[in-house]
């Protein structure tokens, strides 16, 4: 699924660049439509992965996102899950990267497994592609299971 999403985004970016160089407004609109479709596919893939979790309970209050950084050509953010229960728990978390204006850039799903009762554990959310600017990571959905 990740390769399909990455391929769609690469195709969209390449098409946008190629069509953008032609100077044609129609071509630019078409490139924008392709990029929007690829972005929607990323969001849809993340939502589908969240829907695969069985017997999960809303745990957004247990999870927090730290500041973003760059790791190679990707944006990363530490995600911390704190388990308030009296048994170990696994977390599946959808993290959305947004630009300074709040526009959607990317979405990923992260698993943090085996968080001990009353303790915290951190994982790293890593963007599917290169993001420009200073994106912010936010928790879109978190399930404890």
Description of the molecule:
The chain has 145 residues and is α+β, with helices and mostly antiparallel strands. It folds into two domains: 2-51; 57-144, Immunoglobulin-like (Sandwich). Helices cover 32% and strands 38% of the residues. The chain contains two helices and eight strands; from the N terminus they run ααββββββββ. A four-stranded antiparallel sheet has the order 1-8-5-6, covered by helices on one side. Strands 2, 3, 4 and 7 form a four-stranded antiparallel sheet that branches. A hairpin with a 5-residue loop joins β5 (89-98) and β6. α1 (2-20) packs antiparallel against α2 (25-51). The longest helix has 27 residues, at 25-51. It is globular, with a radius of gyration of 17 Å. Mean pLDDT is 80; it is low at 1-24 and 26-36. This is Lipoprotein. Residues 119-133 have a biased composition (Polar residues). Residues 58-79, 115-145 are annotated as: Disordered.
Write a short abstract of this structure.
This protein has 145 residues and is of the alpha+beta class. The protein contains two helices and eight strands.
How many helix segments? 2
Summing up helix and strand content along with how strands pair, one would put the structural category as alpha+beta
Biggest sheet strand line-up:
1-8-5-6
CATH class of the largest domain: Mainly Beta
CATH topology of the largest domain: Immunoglobulin-like
What string gives the helices and strands in order? HHEEEEEEEE
Distance between the termini: 23 Å
Per DSSP E runs of 2 or more residues, the count of β-strands stands at: 8
Low-confidence stretches are 1-24, 26-36
Q: How much helical structure, as a percent, in the residues?
A: 25-40%
Which oligomeric form is depicted? single chain
- As a percent range, the share of strand residues is 35-45%
> Looking at the structure, what is the overall shape?
globular
**What profile does the largest beta sheet have?**
4 strands, antiparallel
Radius of gyration from CA coordinates: 17 Å
Q: Architecture of the largest domain, according to CATH?
A: Sandwich
Tell me the domain tally.
2
On the 0 to 100 scale, the average pLDDT is 80
